[in-house]
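Lesson 9: reading folded outputs for more than one chain in a single document. The general rule is that every protein is listed as its sequence immediately followed by its structure tokens, and records are never interleaved. Here is the first one.
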Amino acid sequence: MTNNNETMADALELLLLNQHAIAAGLEEVALWIEARGSVDTHDNITTALGTLDLNADAITTAIEKLRQNHQ
């Protein structure tokens, strides 16, 4: 892997880890909100979390491609 690809893959991996951490926090907040009766807000957060999951898959694929170019 070239230095640039390695750096890019490492940076994307850190961003992905941050994205997972933010999603976990939002999920906890969504459950707290739902328990207090705001189902619509919970549903909106859950929809946004679905987008984060979808994007996380694409980021993971990009990381894998960058790392495969080295092999």
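And here is the second record, again sequence then tokens.
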Amino acid sequence: MTRFRLATINVHSFNNPSDYENNIEELISILKPLDLDLIAVQEIQKNNHWSNFCKHLSLPFTHIGSGGGNYYGIGIASRYPIISPYDQQTSFASVGGNRFFIKCCLGGDHPFVKDRIFAVTHLDHLNENDRLKQIKEFSPVGHNVNILMGDMNALTRDDYSDDYYQKNLVQVREKSNWETPCFDLSWLLTTRWAFQDAFKQINPQLKDESVATSRYGTRIDYIQWVSKLFNHV
């Protein structure tokens, strides 16, 4: 069976979050062997870094949303033609900045892309209430989205053992004066809107540092899906 390989990544403008050095070559070296069919990208701007990134991953079809000049810009790169892209921006102000949403279909003859709507977003990094307002305004359910990808800055409680949760989430956030751990967004997506967490479905036993996608030891990046054709992924 032909697989369809997709991923999501926050590239932080191709700067390593730890030292702010350009890391585009490192990212390409990690992602290229995966032979991806589609990648959703956050914190991207329309420049040579973006075009070189897509070129080296052999993803010729690209779309950057209306936030292409914004630090929080998002984009999609695909092996297959991008059809009818739709861009949306939050209509309200947030301390964490404007946020964006892209949805599109894909052309081509791969069975996975038929009658599918793909979407990418990047939600607020400061406040769960703003994240909830943003995702509700973007309304992936209202847009009939089948695959929702992106850095959602959301937490899932089942990702963490009790000890890890207390030490690496509760205590770290208290010391840093950040928001307390919240799970409302992940609950909304998976319980109320019936999206399924692709990573947890494939890796149900993994927890703690094994699931981390951020430098703070938490998982905040997701691929959520509603589809009967998941076995093509």
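What the second record shows: The chain is about 25% helix and 20% strand.
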